[in-house]
Amino acid sequence: MGSCLSAESRSPRPGSPLSPSLGVKKRKNSKKRPGSRNSSFDYRREEPLHRIPGRLFLNGSSEVASLFTQQGKKGTNQDAMIVWENFGSRTDTVFCGVFDGHGPYGHMVAKRVRDSLPLKLSANWEVNITSGEVLKEISLNTAGSMNSEDTFASADEELRPSTDTEDSEKQPEIFQTLKESFLKAFKVMDRELRIQPSIDCFCSGTTAVTLVKQGRDIIIGNVGDSRAVLGTRDKDDSLIAVQLTVDLKPNLPAEAERIQKCKGRVFALQDEPEVARVWLPNNDSPGLAMARAFGDFCLKDFGLISVPDISYRRVTDKDEFIVLATDGIWDVLSNKEVVDIIASAPARSSAARALVESAVRAWRYKYPTSKVDDCAVVCLYLDSDLNNISTAVANTKIKDPPASVDEVNTGTEKDEEVSGPTGLSHSQSLRSGKEILAEDSKEDGSDEVYAESGVEWSALEGVSRVNTLLNLPRFVPGKEDKKARK
What we know:
Layout lengths: L39 H7 L8 E2 L3 E2 L3 E6 L8 E7 L7 E10 L3 H35 L8 H4 L12 H6 L2 H23 L9 E2 L1 E7 L2 E7 L3 E7 L5 E5 L9 H9 L3 E3 L9 E4 L2 E6 L5 E2 L13 E6 L4 E7 L1 H4 L4 H9 L7 H16 L8 E7 L23 H5 L26 E2 L11 E4 L2 E4 L20 H7 L1
Antiparallel strand pairs: 1-4, 2-3, 3-17, 4-5, 5-6, 5-7, 6-14, 7-8, 8-15, 9-10, 9-16, 11-12, 12-13, 16-17, 18-19, 19-20
């Protein structure tokens, strides 16, 4: 939506003021403690983000993932994506995410979250792991030194989820640890967007569907209406789609109830009765078509939140790949269609691109008078052994070799858009006492359903061919706001 140009999102040269390393120079003669583990957070101090091995954010692929984004017809591409292998210096761990910006500076918000959120998640993950180790040591040896209190006191107590003991025992330890890390990282990320001066986030924001895979454990943190879908096999060995996230839109009863309790309004316009939107109490703006997002601070006092819905899944031998994509894909293709397109791609390295191209064709065919939306796709293959492919093209030779990390991360300026003005275990942030998330999904995996008083609420209902942000509220900064900016 924005048209002004800025060099903010361009891949900067190392050492430049705009470098993702935040201008922090590498300290000379710095020595690490013996036995200390190099964390992904260390990269922020030592090396520009775009040079980190295993971190992909441009169109390309690796042995385990394929990613592709394409600008629509609405202006600057506001979608962003990332695949980060060896995440947190763990060889069996991958971080993936797609981000759909909206508003005049949505593209800048999406790229800022793409770059900063993984670092915050990794840092909080390490803190929580250390805290757990310390607590175990204290419980085993109560006579031990208590100087370690400082180690775990830094965790934000208000973000520790209040789950029942029985539920905690059912979940693996990594889920509990990463759940706390996700909650803290998302909160800190949104707080940083509010106070930083370089991007105006008052009427701009972004969605985020993020995933951490460690071994066979998958933890997903979701804000907004981007979506994650699993391609797996049923008992008849047929490829099916299982939706892993719920589209967090204002039409969901729990989301609408929260917004209305905070004096925000939820209603649809007459010419689009199927699209519920969030409005200010005394102003018919901004008309945001989602219930959770980073940024959009004009609505944060009226029910909009950035708390992620967190879910867990254990990978089985029948699970083949996970697709993360922005709503430019889901508005025109069903979950089953997406899974079939990925499975029938001639090569893993081109799977994401094939999906985006199919979505663009679907836009032109279904909605010839509408502008094609931006699209971003990350396809994570759960079987990293290229010789053991069980998709529909198992016997097809891979003609396109996966691009190396260097090839992917040293793209041209055209690749990085220039900036301008179900066996899921969900967190309690989504449910309320009145709503129950149905665990059973239909064969195509597309109907995650809410049930309240006998009324079914489909997670697939929502925005279609409309702008995420309808109107921008008129905001005149006062003296205090101008001082804060300075």
